[in-house]
């Protein structure tokens, strides 16, 4: 039997909460089936944002090609729509080589933008963004959400008050165009054919063990020089209100460098932030359609074997897929 055409092959997604071992699992799958990885993490796209992002090093990649990783300047506010467009191009490129596509990351909004393309939004007005960012820094993310409730109640009802990046973007659209985001979103394009081929596998490790990992990893990041990294980024002109430095693991360091909290407070608040983020990631993927769950961590050899067994049973798999890829 001949291999199926590219438009019938699955596009794999390895998702789940932060610190759950997604990268290790994605690399194991790519090695086993001759795949290439597309990063689906909204912070790992940024250059020079290293210590708190858990980017896989060249040695850890074990020869597996990685795409959309470490390629956006940190002063740029990269959008989900831009990522989805780039991901579609990379999927076509990888499949054109006959390789399996493996999306790896925990940014659910990126994945949704790939499944359900965003409407053509206006370019970012940096003046409006700076005003809203200053407002967020001075009065908190919840204040932006209250403002959105007045300007676009339908959009506000769909967004969590702490999901500040999406809340802020909804406000930007409203202020730039004079029309609420909720009224413009029905104009979004039809999903690409790739959307129907996504097979999403999400990790669900034991909650307490996951939180222990997050706490340990946060302490390791600070010991590894996270404060120095952030200080150098700020000195190089990366805005404190940028998406890159607003990410979990970086925001509290910025506050520490401004004298707004102690080092210990920055560490403990970062732990709490990341634990809350992991919980929201799990909630997000539980609401997504067709997600197949894997109990455990992705760097667990048994979890890797379980997924590989599932994948070998997928219909329409190329004839040579069961052959291990040379390491």
List keywords for this structure.
14 helices; alpha/beta; 6-stranded parallel beta sheet; Histone, subunit A; 327 residues; 6 strands; disordered C terminus; Rossmann fold; 2 domains
Helix content: 40-55%
Specify the number of helices. 14
What fold name goes in the CATH topology slot of the largest domain? Answer: Rossmann fold
Strand content: 5-15%
Rg, nearest Å = 20 Å
Describe the global form: globular
The largest pleated sheet is described as:
6 strands, parallel
Strand order across the biggest sheet?
Answer: 3-2-4-1-5-6
Mean pLDDT: 90
The arrangement of helices and strands along the chain is: EHEHEHEHHHHHHEHHHHEH
CATH architecture assignment of the largest domain: 3-Layer(aba) Sandwich
Quote the distance from N terminus to C terminus. 27 Å
Structural class based on helices, strands and sheet pairing? alpha/beta
Task: State the domain count.
Answer: 2
CATH class of the largest domain: Alpha Beta
Poorly predicted runs: 320-327
Total strands = 6
């Amino acid at each position: 039997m001949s291999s199926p055409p590219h438009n019938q092959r699955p596009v794999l997604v390895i998702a789940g909460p932060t610190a759950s071992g997604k990268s290790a699992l994605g690399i194991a799958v790519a090695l086993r089936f001759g795949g290439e990885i597309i990063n689906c993490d909204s912070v790992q796209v940024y250059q020079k944002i290293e210590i708190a992002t858990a980017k896989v090093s060249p040695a850890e990649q074990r020869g597996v090609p990685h795409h959309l990783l470490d390629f956006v300047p940190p002063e740029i506010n990269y959008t989900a729509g831009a990522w989805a467009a780039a991901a579609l191009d990379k999927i076509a490129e990888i499949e054109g080589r006959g390789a399996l596509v493996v999306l790896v990351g925990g940014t659910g909004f990126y994945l949704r933008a790939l499944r359900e393309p965003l409407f053509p939004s206006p370019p970012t007005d940096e003046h409006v963004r700076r005003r809203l960012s200053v407002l967020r820094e001075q009065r908190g993310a919840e204040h932006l959400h209250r403002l959105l409730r007045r300007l676009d109640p339908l959009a506000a009802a769909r967004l969590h008050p702490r999901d500040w990046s999406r809340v802020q973007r909804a406000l930007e659209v409203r202020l730039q165009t004079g029309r609420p985001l909720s009224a413009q979103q029905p104009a979004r394009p039809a999903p690409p054919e790739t959307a129907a081929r996504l097979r999403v596998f999400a990790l669900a490790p034991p909650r307490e063990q996951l939180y222990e990992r997050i706490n340990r990893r946060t302490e390791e990041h600070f010991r590894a020089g996270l404060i120095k990294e952030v200080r150098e980024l700020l000195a190089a002109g990366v805005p404190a209100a940028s998406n890159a430095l607003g990410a979990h693991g970086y925001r509290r360091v910025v506050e520490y460098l401004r004298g707004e909290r102690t080092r210990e407070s920055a560490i403990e608040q970062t732990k709490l932030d990341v634990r809350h983020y992991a919980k929201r990631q799990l909630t997000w993927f539980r609401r997504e359609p067709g997600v197949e769950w894997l109990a455990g961590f992705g760097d667990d050899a048994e979890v890797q074997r379980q997924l590989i067994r599932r994948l070998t049973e997928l219909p329409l798999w190329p004839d040579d897929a069961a052959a291990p890829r040379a390491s």
